[in-house]
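Supplementary material to the annual report.
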Amino acid sequence: DAKTTQPTSMDCAEGRAANLPCNHSTISGNEYVYWYRQIHSQGPQYIIHGLKNNETNEMASLIITEDRKSSTLILPHATLRDTAVYYCIVRAERGLSNFGNEKLTFGTGTRLTIIP
Amino acid sequence: DTAVSQTPKYLVTQMGNDKSIKCEQNLGHDTMYWYKQDSKKFLKIMFSYNNKELIINETVPNRFSPKSPDKAHLNLHINSLELGDSAVYFCASSPSGFSGGPTDTQYFGPGTRLTVL
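Predicted assembly:
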């Protein structure tokens, strides 16, 4: 079962920042927050992940609350090509007990539509 | 410079047939996965292999038999196809291994749309 809760859908105007929330109130201390997206008819694409600190890369920023019970993915300047389903996933860090078992458990995600 | 490739992209077949989907990754990764995305768009893990050894089998019917001839390939063979097998199948790979860090990223292929008539 997915351990995250996300809004079903969101709209964002082109050129504006898209802020996608995710609740993960039962997250454990060794679990990371991952974000993937799936553009129509394509395979899921990795965006970003983090543990405690905020993270930024060329695609997005990830803001994780201090209690780690929620996070927000930020696409700073959304374009039409960012229209996709965005998945927030929590996953334990790799250890001997789960080595090789690094499956991703996808929920229903948020369908983000960028409006021209 | 394709990272994870799958063939075929589309597969249409009759019920009861046997078919295979091939996956190859040129990223040098240790672990490969098969996921299934059904008509309701739920994406679920089916199998994972690490260095040609089966690690995860998520209660998939034994009509599905993954085969990993080497670390770069993970093929999915399906016997006696049923209507409910119609879905998009995604292959993925990740660099997990003893030399890896605490986390890794999975890279997905473009998917194979299987339609069983």
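The radius of gyration of chain B is 14 Å.
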